Amino acid sequence: MSKPPRVITIAGSAAGGSAGIQADLKTFQELDVYGMSVVTAIVARHPETNNNVHPQSLEAIEAQFATAVKQVGLDAIKTGMLFSKEVIDNVAGLIDGASINTLVIDPVMVGKLDSKLLEDDAIDSLKTKLLPNATIITPNMPEASYLLDGREIKHVADLKQAAIDLHELGPRYVLVKGGRLEGPAVDVLYDGETLATFEAPRIDTVNTSGAGCTYSAAITAYIANGYSVLEAVRSAKSFVTTAIEYGFSYTKMVGPTYHAAPRTHGEAHEIKVN
Ligand code: PXL
């Protein structure tokens, strides 16, 4: 039997199951890669203290990574919520030591339910220690803006300029996601030479919690399965668009995308690439 590629997500645990580690592992499973995890923090609001972020110790982070490397080994790494400078510095060291070709960095900063997922003093470490080693980084519009010192990003032309400028930080590919644009959902990919745009229809729903995590997890899985970065982005965008289309909520709160929908509801979305 041929064995599936081994993929680890280093991210926060989203207790509600829509985002973070949970979204990543569900997506990995759907796309036939072997999923593993390093939990950097637990995101879960305590009903009395109101605390929402419960960071894990560096020891716990190192232990999880070492266990995955030893028991299984790694083919690709994805990072999500890292939360603090301390964790970023530590994780950057772990990643450097692992000598892996595929590193997908989702520079997670703020959750849909308004949790602060990255501390302010962590941004420099993110930019200098992690982003330069990435195969691809996947900022949304607010994250791209923050990484570019607060620049306004509103239109597709701004996404393109942001991708070009973020490429200067050293990643091989930059994908700036236009989830917050008006009109179709257009994302921009830049590899240092060529700009490509990916367009999907805008789906009228509020249930998009974890969409960004799901998208970058799918990119990671497709690259691990041998796709080129461009084909991985195209396929992952189709996957996440279907997951958004079949999103739902069990409560009055914003609900999850449905990670199983691309399998159970079949039709892939056509993504226009230009
Ligand atoms: O969707 C961003 C995100 C990432 N990671 C974790 C989260 C969230 C959003 O809530 O909880 C752990």
TrEMBL record:
Pathway: Cofactor biosynthesis; thiamine diphosphate biosynthesis; 4-amino-2-methyl-5-diphosphomethylpyrimidine from 5-amino-1-(5-phospho-D-ribosyl)imidazole: step 2/3; Cofactor biosynthesis; thiamine diphosphate biosynthesis; 4-amino-2-methyl-5-diphosphomethylpyrimidine from 5-amino-1-(5-phospho-D-ribosyl)imidazole: step 3/3. The keyword Glycoprotein does not apply. The keyword Metal-binding does not apply. Keywords: ATP-binding, Kinase, Nucleotide-binding, Thiamine biosynthesis, Transferase. GO terms for biological process: thiamine biosynthetic process. Its EC number is 2.7.1.49, 2.7.4.7. It holds the Pfam family Phos_pyr_kin. It catalyses: 4-amino-2-methyl-5-(phosphooxymethyl)pyrimidine + ATP = 4-amino-2-methyl-5-(diphosphooxymethyl)pyrimidine + ADP; 4-amino-5-hydroxymethyl-2-methylpyrimidine + ATP = 4-amino-2-methyl-5-(phosphooxymethyl)pyrimidine + ADP + H(+). One of its GO terms (molecular function) is hydroxymethylpyrimidine kinase activity. Coiled coil: none annotated. It is an enzyme of class 2 (transferase). Residues 16-257 form the Pyridoxamine kinase/Phosphomethylpyrimidine kinase domain. PANTHER family: HYDROXYMETHYLPYRIMIDINE_PHOSPHOMETHYLPYRIMIDINE KINASE THI20-RELATED, PHOSPHOMETHYLPYRIMIDINE KINASE. This is Hydroxymethylpyrimidine/phosphomethylpyrimidine kinase.
